[in-house]
Amino acid sequence: MPRTNLEQTALIYVAQLLATAVNDAKKLGDLRAKFYAKGSLGELYEISGKIS
Questions:
Q1: What is the pLDDT of residue 1?
Q2: Which range marks the domain in which residue 31 is found?
Q3: Residue 34 in contact with residue 22, Cβ under 8 Å?
Q4: Contact 34, 26 (CB under 8 A)
Q5: 6-44 CB burial, b ≥16 within 10 A, e <16
Q6: Which of 3, 15, 32, 33 could share a disulfide with 7, CB 3.0–4.6 Å?
Q7: Checking phi first, is residue 3 left (phi over 0); if not, alpha (psi -120 to 50) or beta?
Q8: Does position 52 have pLDDT exceeding 50, yes or no?
Q9: Tens digits of per-residue pLDDT, 27-43?
């Protein structure tokens, strides 16, 4: 089912927040936070249909 513009915008926003979290965790040297954020980002891509 096609997503609305609002849903698309929300997915992009969340993906940007998670990417920022990955970068911040990397700068801080926090491996647990980095991998948690990466896992969440991967899950978001699966949910959004970018990965089959």
A1: 60
A2: 5-48
A3: yes
A4: yes
A5: eeeeebeeebeebeebbeebeeeeeeeebeebbebbeee
A6: 3
A7: beta
A8: no
A9: 999 999 999 999 999 99
